[in-house]
Amino acid sequence: MPVERAVALIHAVGVGAVTTLLAIPEEERDPQLSSVIRDSVIAFIITNPPDQDQADLVSLAVGLRAHLGSAEVLTPGECLLLNELLDRLAKPPKD
What we know:
The chain is mainly alpha-helical. The chain has helices spanning 3-23, 33-47, 55-66, 76-90.
């Protein structure tokens, strides 16, 4: 899943969870609900297989981008350029 989509999913679920929890009187709230929601979203993002078309390329680009900060052999400019290229590769193709 592209990072932008994961962020949008986390944001949407977070807003919904907060809205729901605020609508429930404090004494009736399930204190574990937010943890269950968080764990569910993270599990979905991690285990949800990407679409088969360009799945390998997208997965590799997302994975490499996640570890780009630890690449000590690249200059800051090279990291910036590679990050931009990986961003493009990580986006699903437009139909």
